[in-house]
Write a structure and sequence with these properties.
Largest sheet: 10 strands, mixed
CATH superfamily: Alpha/Beta hydrolase fold, catalytic domain
Radius of gyration: 19 Å
Oligomer: single chain
CATH architecture: 3-Layer(aba) Sandwich
Shape: globular
Structural class: alpha/beta
CATH topology: Rossmann fold
Strand order of the largest sheet: 9-8-7-6-5-3-4-2-1-10
Strand content: 15-25%
Number of strands: 10
Order of helices and strands: EEEHEHEHEHHHHEHEHEE
CATH class: Alpha Beta
């Protein structure tokens, strides 16, 4: 069931994915993607690890508020947002506070965060800005949040960025499903087959969106606004929550160097790379990712003072889920080192 809360004038859509009574885990998806891009199989693995899972749509994505286009027509090319010298539509602080609005709505005083791609960057910033609300941080396939503007490009594979920018929506009755498959094919690791099984994963994600009247990756202006959200807050060195950095060794979009830099910048962060994983997480990676997040969360909870281990309350929206269940991990490296909010429900759509 889709639920909504407000952060100022922004309406944030979120969904309780099950596991009530478990350890609170908030999922933060990446650029321009709705919460429906979290594969159900991965969610099932997280539920099986004892988490109470909630996912939400960032502003300008999914069923959350999409801001109006600028009158001057700027923002047609998302990568151009890195060059913008004008005031952004909103800030990185606003995006971090949106995540906290969701925690407030479900009654969590604190939670574990798992962010993927740009969602990983946002999870980093939430941990910096709201250290008392973040029990642990898992950042997957993300760039370091300390880097801004064109400096981000050093961590991206520009050939993939260019291919993604050239994507055009297919025509026909199954255009949305075909477009999701095209995204998956474009982002597939070099040398790995992208056959019917892989295509089916992306078509299933698009079908879940379609059932809720949602499409992702279609609005370049919304992407520009998300990319252009400037950050004025602290640095990665300020993060106090136990942190885990996950990255695919075959990621065709974000270089592994980004994960290494991120792990080096966060005190005590641990880095785990998966040699056969790309940017999107394939089904055989889901058990390993869920197990790694479970290990981090257990370590974090043991380190927390006993008086602060509460704060997880039943959510207003609970969805039934199933369970499922091997992937080889490579090297694991340890690096030393707001506005009033209200929540409401909407009937199933």
């Amino acid at each position: 069931m889709t639920c909504f809360t407000r952060h100022g004038d922004i309406e944030i859509a979120y969904q309780d994915l099950g596991g009530a009574g478990g350890d609170p885990l908030l999922l933060v998806m990446g650029l321009a993607a709705s919460r429906f891009w979290w594969p159900q199989g991965l969610v099932d693995e997280l539920l099986g690890q004892g988490f109470h899972v909630v996912a939400y749509d960032q502003r300008d994505a999914g069923q959350s508020t999409h801001l109006p286009d600028r009158a001057d027509g700027s923002g047609r090319r998302p990568i151009g947002a890195l060059l913008r010298r004008r005031a952004p539509a909103y800030t990185g602080e606003d995006l971090a506070d949106d995540a906290i609005a969701v925690l407030d709505a479900v009654g969590w005083s604190s939670a574990h965060l798992f962010g993927h791609s740009m969602g990983g960057l946002l999870a980093q910033r939430t941990a910096i800005r709201h250290p008392d609300r973040v029990r642990s941080l898992t950042s997957s396939s993300a760039v370091p949040s300390d880097v801004s503007g064109l400096a981000v490009l050093r961590y991206l594979r520009l050939g993939t960025v260019a291919r993604f920018a050239r994507l055009r929506l297919p025509e026909g009755p199954d255009a949305d499903l075909a477009f999701a498959e095209l995204i998956g094919r474009t982002m597939a690791p070099a040398g790995q087959a992208f056959g019917p099984e892989q295509a089916a994963v992306f078509r299933e994600l698009a079908a879940r969106e379609a059932a809720h009247g949602v499409v992702s990756f279609r609005d370049p202006k919304a992407q520009s606004r998300q990319i252009g959200a400037t950050w004025h807050g602290g640095r990665l060195a300020d993060i106090t929550a136990p942190a885990l950095i996950l990255h695919g060794g075959l990621d065709p979009l974000v270089r592994v160097a980004a994960a290494r830099a991120l792990a080096a910048a966060i005190p005590g962060a641990r880095l785990t790379t998966f040699p056969t994983v790309g940017h999107f997480l394939p089904p055989d990676s889901w058990p390993a990712y869920a197990a790694a997040i479970r290990t981090l969360a257990s370590r974090a909870d043991l380190a927390r003072p006993a008086a602060s281990r509460g704060g997880c309350y039943p959510s207003a929206c609970v969805a039934a889920v199933s369970n499922s269940g091997s992937l080889r991990m490579s090297s694991k490296t340890t690096v030393p080192g707001p506005a009033r909010r209200s929540a409401r429900l909407r009937p199933p759509q």
